[in-house]
Amino acid sequence: MPYPRQQPGRQFYRWYFYDPTQPLVTQTKGVPVKLKSAGWFGGEIGSAVVKDMSGGGAGVLVPRKDKVPGKFWVCYDRNTRVKAVVKYRQQVDDKLEFLGLAWVNADPQLVLKLLRKLRRRAFVIQQQPVRLVQNTTA
Questions:
Q1: Contact between residue 64 and residue 25 where contact means Cβ atoms under 8 Å apart
Q2: Cα→Cα distances 35→13, 39, 96, 138, Å
């Protein structure tokens, strides 16, 4: 079962591909992707790791050396790519940067198909078993 979570101020639920209780620097999980230029020839910018994703965008961890532009393609495989624009950048350490992305004119069916495809990789929170207790006061 994936770990979607609605956060205040967000329009979409997010699926996390890492443990959100741990710092990003110590994370080892995520969905590997390639980043390509938004221009005609779509030259490769570099690799990244998707840490969370929603119907509206994604959060990716990228090497700072790759100098990621403001708009580019996120390529999940040969047939699946989504154009994205950087909404915010956050330096994680001297080598990594976290980018908050928004999908640009993305087909909602494509994004939904991608979320379904990736849901098995989503982080699953271990929940405590629930015990139902009959209320005897009345």
A1: no
A2: 24, 12, 15, 61
